[in-house]
Amino acid sequence: MPRRGVIAVRKCVEMGVYLWETLLALFVLVSVILGTKDLFLYLSHARFGVSGTGYSAFQAFVSHVLLLVVGLELAIMLIRHTPGSLIEVLLYVIARKLLVPGATASDFVLGVASIVGLFATRKYLFVSKIDVREHIMNAATPVHTVNDLMDTHLPENVANTLGGLIVHVAGEERGAIMPGARFHVADTRLEVVEVVDGLIRKVKVTRQERGDI
Fold it and tell me: Which of 28, 91, 123, 126 keeps 20 to 30 A from 114, CA to CA?
């Protein structure tokens, strides 16, 4: 298959996957909305239930709330594709697990240790901002993630990923996609670093200041 055909197929598959994930996120959101009505049922049981069952009813209420929150965070994760979203989903899942009536002491210890580990990962290993003007990234990195990390202003409505953006710009400028090819988009210079079988793998992203443009 010609290189242009491979790039076109890759772009179609990428768009299809993104649309499918968006549809799944929409289904999750609808399920959360429908599940919200059950909160009133839990509240009524906690208030008017049999004496002595108030605590268990409230525990079920909080557990259901956390389940709905997990659904919302899952929908966000499907849309944003960021490590932070994944960490938040795991935090709420573990917190809900700790509220299960059958949880043992070892479950609590493991749950607390997991939460501490996730917070440590988020604080010390999770990168929310790259304090350099130049960085080599995977071509599959979402454009909005590049903007968040590099403080750039790449257009997010043109393509979903960094590689897709370069393919789009190269098509408009009729430029060749090969290692060393450079493209200027907004306040950013994108340089193709690695191409394998016609597919972009690595891209050097350089944030340009006003004096550099």
Answer: 28
For residue 43, is it within any domain?
yes
| pTM for the whole structure | 0.55
Q: 125, 142, 176: which is the final residue of a domain?
A: 125
Torsion of CA 58, 61, 67, 70, to 10 degrees: -80
- Residue 112 CA, distance from chain mean position: 24
Element (H, E) at 193: strand 188-196
Domain of 155? Answer: 134-207
pLDDT average, residue stretch 10-16:
75
Q: Distance between CA atoms of 63 and 97, rounded to whole angstroms?
A: 8
The tens digit of pLDDT for each residue in 157-182 reads 888 888 888 888 887 656 567 888 88
Q: Rg of the chain's alpha carbons, rounded to an integer?
A: 23
Measured between alpha carbons, how far is 123 from 198 in angstroms, rounded to an integer? 38
